[in-house]
Amino acid sequence: MPSYSARQRKSTIVMALCLMATLIGVVWLFLILFSLLINGLPGLSLATFTEMTPPPGSHAGGLLNAIYGSVVMTIFGVGIGAPIGVLAGTYLAEYGRHSKVTPVIRFINDILLSAPSIIIGLFIYGAVVVPMRSFSAVAGSIALAVIVIPVVVRTTEDMLLLVPNTLREAASALGLPRSYVIRKVTYRAARAGLITGILLAVARVGGETAPLLFTVLSNQFWSANLLKPMANLPVTINNFINNPDANWKHLAWTGALLITVAVLSLNISARFFGASKDGQ
Amino acid sequence: MSTADETMQAIPHVAKQQRARVLLGMALGDKVFALATQVAAYLVLLVLAGIILSLIVGAWPAMKAFGFEFLITRRWAPQLEPEPVLGALAPIYGTLVSSFIAMLIAVPFGLGIAIFLTELCPHRLRKPVRLAIELLAGIPSIIYGMWGFFVLGPFLANYIEPSLVAAFANIPVLNSIFSGEMVSNLSLFNASLILAIMILPFITAIAVDVFSTVPPVLKEAAYGIGCTTWEVVNNVVLPFTRVGVVGGVMLALGRALGETMAVTFIIGNSFKISGSIFAPSTTISAAIASEFAESSGLHQSALILLGLLLFVLTFFVLATARFMLMRLEKRAGA
Asked: Are residues B14 and B139 in the same domain?
């Protein structure tokens, strides 16, 4: 057996390596944020929010139509996906707690949670775009909804299972039907957790690009028609990066900065929201 | 609670009929709600069935045209006349190799960070460090792609890769893996590094979670007989949490295999298999992302078939990961 000092030295070396790994791991976040600020901030102006995406070769223009499209599709995606997710999570945690199907659904849901998002794009292309014969904002919203559902199912189930059974029993003892117990008692007790889950889902789909590439396509112009291709930030950024036009490159950086700031602040506020509940 | 109070107060005063109606309404609402939750839950299964079905339907023409050959053909020539030649070997190779290199980098770093966070980190720093790592998981993948394309790729190609090439130039085998013939901003290695950064938070988060399931008594006992910190980690923490760590690593692998936007920009989208990791390559998801919108006919069907292959691959990896994590949960519960 090596001497104590040799073992101690080995331990110190390994722990120093762990410290180094942590420093290197933390640095990426700041490097990425730094690049985004340096390249994206100079392009940020009022015009970003008031003007349409420009044609190549011009000097002006903004991202209004892309921002609008992203907001609309995120709202529709979460608006469709979140209620379904909450209901499904309710089934797993309440009605179906002892059902034999529940573990299967939970398992499948966990897999869908990390399934490649481009596969969701292919699925919606085959299931919505081809039958409708057109790329559309509807197809994009459904694709986003499919991504939202597993996220919300998972958090809803987890949060409902944290609610103590005594609360449910007390409400049931008053003679309340089961659905009233769930809606008026369990949901209220788990409210912060449920909202956290939905915020995380918004953050997740806010920057999703792959499932939108061939479901909504994108649009150079303003379009509020949900049945037509609609401009949106991620795909606009994607198209702008692939083009040598300098103005487009600047706009891409600005758009990237906007998305990242929005998504990260949603992430942080979701954590804050979840944590404030724990402290009570 | 208000509904309960109202019901309790209301019942003595209303006529019998009215009471019956209220109760009927409640019973009906109860049934409808229960049914709605059940339908929503089964919808999750339906989504999976829908994905598999639509992929198979879309991929059918390509399956019929190429058969098993698809998996072993290196050539990808969608424009060839009269019949396109399409083979999946290059994207499959790129997918597996880029994920493998990413895991090779991310696993030691992720575990190192988790060990630091659970064993060494002062309490006050624990939360901010964890947050900084976990926020990496929140950054959308297109931002990684963009950053890799404009910042990391050029940096690696100009400063890091030439010295790696020089270092391995005289060592057989390694000098072909680290070949300098094609060093550029777009390469398999650059894509792998971006992937490694992206999956790092997943490995770290799960490793921290499973490390904290180790009963403190076990660690204290080891420290009590004079173990060093590393010996405690190596002989107590890691063996105790092995299943969970492997599950977390598999979960991250599932993510890496299917990652799209980060890879598409930086891997070069070249359907050539090269022994050098500094050569451009492609992955299944990058091929779909860059070609699908302009594809049609057999070409499109072949891309969907690639998607089906990717889905089957990630499904098995993720299923194994979940299975292992479930085993750990069961043990923690028992």
From this structure: no
Pairing of strands B76-77, B85-86: antiparallel
Task: Give residue A127's pLDDT.
Answer: 93
Same domain, B62 and B84: no
Interchain contact, B292 vs A122, CB within 8 Å? yes
ipTM of the complex: 0.91
Write out chain A residues lying below 8 Å of B117, CB-based: 22
The pLDDT score that the predictor gives to residue B7 is: 59
Q: Chain B within 8 Å of A233 (Cβ-Cβ)?
A: no
Q: Which of B66, B85, B112 is the last residue of a domain?
A: B66
pTM, two decimals, is 0.90
Average pLDDT, chain A: 90
Domain containing residue B82: CATH number? 1.10.3720.10
B141 and B17 in a common domain: no
pLDDT digits (tens, 9 = 90+) for B26-43: 889 899 999 999 999 999
How many Å lie between the alpha carbon of B163 and the closest alpha carbon of chain A?
Answer: 20
B260–A35 C-beta distance less than 8 A:
no
Residue to substitute from B28, B111, B135, B309, interface A, most A β-carbons within 10 A: B135
Q: How many domains does chain B have?
A: 2
